[in-house]
Structure formats: structure tokens, C-alpha cells
Amino acid sequence: MAKKKTMIPKYGTITLKGIQYYRTRIKDADGKEVSLYATTCEELYEKQLEARQQVEEIIFRRQHPTVAEYCEKWLLMQSAKVYASTLRGYTRDMQNYVIKPLGEMYMEEVTADDIRLALVPLSKKSEGLYNKVNMLLKCIFYAAERNQILEHNPCVGISGKGGKPAKKREALTDQQVAVLLDTVKGLPPYLFIMLGLYSGLRREEILALQWDCVFLDENTPYLSVRRAWRTEHNRPVVSTVLKTPAAKRDIPIPKCLVDCLREAKENSISDYVIADSKGEPLAASQFQRVWQYVVVRSTKPRNYYKYVNGESIKYTVTPTLGMTQKNQPKIKYTLDFDVTPHQLRHTYITNLLYAGVDPKTVQYLAGHENSKTTMDIYAKVKYNKPEELFGVVNGAFHQAIAE
């Protein structure tokens, strides 16, 4: 049986630099006309077929992307909205917990069961990581649904809660505050800790604070929060972009902090309240070294390794309160409680609520965008002191008892 001969279309010609070419036009994936050239009709026909196949493949990919392809597109869109450090976190978590289990599947193929199975390994991770990945999954699939790539969103009905609950950080007691301040007096973290305890600023707000936002000679001394600190590749970046609109606020400060800041200002060579030896804002690694002055004075167990007969052996040492460090006698273990930078802010907010400041005022001073954050702390503070509630409860049921 004779093989059917391919009918080669008749193409127009064009002469370029003295050479005759055959030419045709096709529409690309965006609907724009593009020209194709060849020296023979057969060659041009092959080019035309190949180009049409590529266009069809691109259009198909756009309408039916894999999870990996759509994740890449979503991250590219986010790059114009979020900090570089945030984008790096999104990319890392998406690669490890979304693309690895689901990346080769087409978006429309993914079912609710596939989502749940992808989240199973995260149930053994921290609650924060679980929630972040859950958020990323929902962002991706809701965006695909809005762009009509999906008819059904598999994330509908997926629980937003999971993972191991993080250890709740309690506010420091008055006694713990006194011990902490006595421990770091005269050390690099002292001013940072004072600002956290008595102004409630976030870490990024303290490290971005400049003297032009510190008003110590007013009738009511105060701080203005107008800048935020972050790092990119360990380099400090200070900008006027705050965490939320509510973060922009003016905070009256107590005398103890006024005195501390006044002394610091007299000795400062920088525009920044907290700066390195050159007057520049701290890098991430510099802040970690500053905070180590606190860490090394705690009685928290420490691990170290020794090589014995060529084998690495792990040892755990738990310092005793009041002892001095063996190799550095000037370092004394005085902190028998954990303390983190954020805990300073939490202590400030808690103390305001203990003092009877109304939650709406606390919300403003803390720079909380959502009142729920403030009210959750308020409820915990108010209802975790049974001795103060005894009179209220007794009074509420006094009438019933009398009858």
C-alpha cells in the first residue's frame, strides 16, 4: 500500500539581505502573531508543526499546571509583596512539605485525601510549622480556584489545627524581672531588655529605634514606633514598613526607662538607640551574640561533645544556681528560668492588664492589629488568678445561698 504523501502548503516568500525565504505566521500562546522563516517549504512546514505543538503544550500547561509549576508561579507573584527573608521561608517550606509529596500531580488531580496525607508528617512537627504549611496549601489552591484552574478546591474542610503545641511562654514574675535586670546590669543586652520590659516593643521595633523617635524631655516622655528592623543574608535592613498599620504608635514610658535611655544617649555615637561599635544597626548574628549574655547565665542544661578513642561522645551538663562557669569565673549562673526576647514584650502587656488598664488601651500600646490577640492574653491574665476571683464568685452566689 502506497504511503500517503504529505501535502506541503504553499507559502509566501520574502527576500532578506539578498536571500529568498519562505514565510508564514502563527499565533503564539499569548495570541500574538509571530513569523516563521525557512529556505524551503518542507523545512518551514516542519517548523510550523513544531511551533504549533509547543504553543498547544504551553496552553495546556497553563490550564493544567502541576502542583510544582503552580507553586513556582505563586511564589513569583509573592516576591513583589513580601520581604526576601519571608519568601525564602515560604520557598523552603513549600519545597519540603508541598512539592515533595504533591509536586508531580496536576492541580486538578489533587484530592482532600492527598492534602491530608501531605500533612501527616507535619503532625509530628511544631504547631507553628503545621499551621504555616497549611496556610501555604490553602493559599495555593484558593488562588488556583479564583483563576478557574480548579472546579473543586480540595482544601475546603481541611482542619487548620495540628502539630505539637508549642510550649506556652509565661510572663516573667516581678522577682524574675528583678533577677534578670540584676544579672545583665552593665552588659550589652541591658538596654534591649529594659526597652522590652517597659515599652513592650517587638524585637524588630527595638533594633530599628532611633534617637529621633525618643522624646525624653516632654512632660510625658514617650517613644514613637516608626521603623522596623529585619535582616537579609545577615545584613540589617531598617525601613518604615511596619508589621501592621497598628504598629505605628506613640508609647509613654516610665521613669526607670527614661533614666536608662538618658544615660545611654549621653554615651551614644549613633543615630540608633542600640547599635554596634560602628554605630550601625545590629546584624542578626550580632543580636544573637548579644542575647548569649543572657543564655550563658541560665541553668538550662547544655550539651557538648568529646572525642574518646576517635568516637564523638555526647555529654549533658546542668549548671547549679549560684555557681560560676568553670572556664570563665566572671560568669555566674543566676537565671533558673527561661527568658526570650518576645517574653519581655509579653511581660509588659501582662503587667498592664494586671494593673487594670483596659484591653482597648493595651491593644493600642502593644500595636496589636487584632483585638483577639489582646483579649486572649487578657482572658488568661484575668481568669488565671483564682484568689482574685473568689470575691466575685462568692458575691454572685451570695443571694442564692441566703435564700
TrEMBL record:
Gene3D superfamilies noted in UniProt: 1.10.150.130, Intergrase catalytic core
Keyword DNA-binding listed: yes
One biological process term in Gene Ontology: DNA integration
Alphabetized SUPFAM superfamilies for the sequence: DNA breaking-rejoining enzymes (SSF56349)
CDD domains named among the record's database cross-references: INT_ICEBs1_C_like
Record's keyword annotation contains DNA-binding: yes
GO molecular function, one term: DNA binding
Recorded superkingdom: Bacteria
Tyr recombinase domain mapped to chain residues: 167-394
Keyword annotations: DNA integration, DNA recombination, DNA-binding
PANTHER family registered for this protein in UniProt: PHAGE INTEGRASE-RELATED (PTHR30349), PROPHAGE INTEGRASE INTD-RELATED (PTHR30349:SF64)
Family: Belongs to the 'phage' integrase family.
Descriptive protein name: Site-specific integrase
